[in-house]
Amino acid sequence: MKNVNFKDISSKEVVVSWICQIIIAVVLAKASLSKFMDDEMTILVFKTLKGMESTRFVIATIEALAAFLLLTKTLPHYGALLGLGTMMGAFIAHSTVLGFTSNKELMMMSILMLFVTALSFVVIWINRKRFPFIGQTF
Amino acid sequence: MKKEIWIGGMTVDLDRLSKGFNVLLPFWVLFFAFLGYRFNFNFHFLTVILFFAAVVNFYFLFIQKRHTLLSNFGLMAQFRYFFESIGPELRQYLFLSDVEEKPFNRIERSEVYRKSKGVDDTFAFGSQLLFNQSEFKLRHSLFPVSRSVIQPFSLTFGEERGIKNTYTLKRPVIISAMSFGALGERAVRSLARGAKKAGILMNTGEGGYPKYHLLEGCHLIFQMGTAKFGVRKDDFTLDDNKLRKLAFLPQVKMIEIKVSQGAKPGKGGLLPKEKISKEISELRGVPMGEDVISPSFHVECTNLNKLVHFIKRVQSISELPVGIKLCIGREDEFRELILELKKEDIFPDYITIDGAEGGTGAAPKTFMDDVGVPIFVALPMVNRILNEEGVRNKLKLMAAGKLINSGRQFMAFCMGADAIYTARGFMMALGCIQALQCNRNTCPVGITTHDEHLQRGLDIELKSERVLSYMKSLEHEHVELLQALAKKSISELSILDLYTEKGLS
Ligand SMILES: Cc1cc2nc3c(=O)[nH]c(=O)nc-3n(C[C@H](O)[C@H](O)[C@H](O)COP(=O)(O)O)c2cc1C
Hints:
The complex is a heterodimer.
Chain A: H1 11-36, H2 40-48, H3 55-70, H4 76-98, H5 104-126
Helix pairs in contact in A: 1-3, 1-5, 3-4, 4-5
Chain B: E1 4-7, E2 10-13, H1 14-38, H2 44-63, H3 68-73, H4 78-93, H5 106-117, E3 136-138, E4 155-157, E5 167-169, E6 173-175, H6 185-198, E7 201-203, H7 211-216, E8 219-224, H8 240-248, E9 252-258, E10 269-271, H9 278-284, E11 292-294, H10 304-318, E12 322-326, H11 331-344, E13 350-354, H12 365-370, H13 375-388, E14 396-400, H14 406-414, E15 419-422, H15 424-429, H16 452-455, H17 460-485, E16 498-500
Parallel strand pairs in B: 6-15, 7-8, 8-9, 9-12, 12-13, 13-14, 14-15
Antiparallel strand pairs in B: 1-2, 3-16, 4-5, 10-11
Helix pairs in contact in B: 1-2, 5-17, 6-17, 11-13
The complex binds flavin mononucleotide.
């Protein structure tokens, strides 16, 4: 397979990407941690979602993995993709079951969710050429 | 990808499979979203994954234009890239080597692909060819010359007869005859637009009135096949008025009478009535609803003398340079033709020699494989006969037959060609993947098909850039080769610049 020519990504873009990566990683790490630490709010949220009670730890693991990947030099695009995936799941949960604005904490979560989604897009776009097969088509 | 594959005794139609996949994908997303909503939130894992797939699929199908296969088949076509990427390993360990595919092996094709995309087209480590079997090599000089002494290419057709409408070729490579009919509308337009951008000449093929070629404004050679599509009367004879009108079009610079073609020498053809759409019937000037036969020779030309006078007739009607295209069969017959030309003092303005290895939209296998003389045998022979008969300076000589890279093109120059024709080189520049389905209207990359769905992925603007890039890259190498061979121009090349095992003279 053809290797990506990293000259395709300008140094300005690299900086922007890293800033986004770090912010997303921090948010995801925090979210992951609160799930592992049995935070009351998260327990409640996952109880509300049908069949998800124990999936909480799966999501937490994915978030942790995403945060880790985002801080690596070679795989941040996969981290951002995983992050985007979890955010989409969260979006589905908010829009079908939880709602966005019924209390202050939910509102905070929703805003963070949109924020991370946007930043993940930025990271994925900047690093799009790194995805195998698909990346070459952009 | 209209290809059937066998899986455990079952055939799978990949074209249908991909269409089904593309239509169903959004429904799968909705389906899992429903399951997640109604029964178990965990189904949303699938919702999310499939949603990503659907977005990417949408992008491939409707937004990106670079990759025809992806526009036509979407995500499923990624399998091709995937298998292609692990292909070298698979082939190396299991299947073919890089030089085994036919008619063009992977190395030859990938060189054109890279040139047409303008990416690095150098290879590493060494040649993949079997050296003790290849017959020709170019002889470089101990003292290469500098770029500044290389003269630009220029070749004037019709100067020998001193006619008014001479045509001066500025680029040594011409897009060889491929008819609208064999090619779809978009392929013709991509080539024609590319020809315009690159300043190269394009042959219309025997598809009749060149409507789509004219749209793009490039210079054209109008080809008259044995059925004389576009300029015929119902009995296959030439309609002088129609030819005069065509020749009068400012874009039409030369006329070519096709006597025979390398892939099917001595064979006519049949245009089945199913293929005769309203448009084709108009452009070719044939009735709808019945099969149209192409005779195996021009009905006016039943002997040498008549052939020679037919050339003269076309020359005087069109007032343009007129050439003939043929594949060599018998050496003595060709010499007789030249003697007849000499006797009557009538000469075509050029002769195109099409090698037996030439391509076609459709021909019986035995004609492709077993009839006609290959270009590297025919060309030196023709050049020798023309010289022996003292008429080499009466006409120009062009060559076709897998001359898709600068090396083979230079070999042809050395053997006497003044300019090069290639058809399949330019097809590959358009993205031909050698699916070998030109005769079935199912070309997966939309080149030799009239199917709208399949043509959709062929972006004319982008593909015309590929044609330009391919041509630029060839010319760049021509200059480098001239420097290495210490020649100032292509016209200085001769057989002495060629190493051959057996020796040609
Ligand atoms: C799809 C296709 C259509 C062709 N149509 C014509 C045609 O209409 N008239 C003709 O003289 N040659 C036709 N040819 C032959 C080419 O013009 C050319 O002589 C031959 O392919 C050798 O060149 P190449 O090896 O570079 O392709 C066709 C070839 C292909 C591949």
